Records
---
Amino acid sequence: MDNISIREMRSGYIRTSSGKKFYPFNPSPDQIAVADIATGLANTCRFAGQLPEFYSVARHSIIVSNLVPAGFAMDGLFHDAAEAYLGDLVSPLKKGLPEYKEIEIGVYSSIAEAVGLKKELPAEVKIWDQIVLEDEFSYFFPEYLAEDFSQLTKVNAWKNFYSSPSVDRFAFLARYWQLKAI
């Protein structure tokens, strides 16, 4: 990385599925497309992919959106939207990389502005995100349940259906348009 200047690094972009250029170090709302978010989240597996079956960040986001109080449903749908552009970095790694957190906040702020949300994630969404995480964890990693979560709330809102990236992409977009119509 010594051979790359900060300017060169900041000018780098990724090409999205819709053909847009997205600059992770310099994001702006005009670089954001809901279809790109749906695609990125649907193709990103939770828990760094260390699961016995595919389970996408898009599916997780839809579930959170369906469980939060109605006024926060769109916030719930987009709470992990930065991961569509940055990937789903596991929590222990995020905690050790404060620079990454700054980048993630910048990306989320651009997304929030593009879709009309507040830049600060509401507490109600954070609470339900944690509840769903605990439920997912209990399903995929039951042998560690007692060690990691003492007060588990069983939601079970996401089991018993087949999921794939194409299904999850469609479901994310359908939920978005449903909420836009309200």
---
Amino acid sequence: MTTYRPRHRLPRGGNRCDFCGGQDIHSLHSCSNFDWEGKPVFQQDTGRWAACWMCSGYIEKERRGQLTRRTLWQVSKRQGISANELKILRESLKELHTLFASHVVQGEALKIHEPHVRRVFLDASV
């Protein structure tokens, strides 16, 4: 029997939250390597998972259920994903978030500080 895999998987990096795909990275969570779906998550012994402000809060408060629901909600907004794919993804995410929680290094999150930009308007008449 062939296992059906959704074609809409997790974000693949690129300055995005590794959980929900959000664009504003708030923190990087240190994590030891583990296997998920038969493959190691990192190429080395450790790595970092990027998280937006909301996902980071769920991670720090150890609220895996809310983290999974947020991820599913964000994925469901993507075009072309079916209810069946979301159902399969839900179970996969539960497993992933449980593994992540057991391998994350507590207290080792790096907070990202965004630069502050000030706009200066010059008066050309002066």
---
Amino acid sequence: MSALRYVVLHHTGIDQPHYDLMFERQPGSMLATVRCSNWPPESGTIFERIADHRTSYLDYEGAVSRNRGEVTRVESGTCTVEVDENAVLLTLSSGAQFRVPGLWQK
């Protein structure tokens, strides 16, 4: 299996700046996306599941359409994704691991 890719984008120029963690579930798939208030996340950081994003965000930095601020890449690389019925365990190439609760499709 090919390596799965991820990116962390800092979304600014909006009322509530945040970080978006986007990752492939399988090579070439839409990017599962969660947002959080800080990066890197600390114990107790809340991840909010938002809509999947296009893979073009893996390499994109700049203005977000319809005047919704801008994004800057703060981290990217490859990851492993382990899924169960309640959460996903992400292990990033940086060595960081995160358990993101919620319903995820396998």
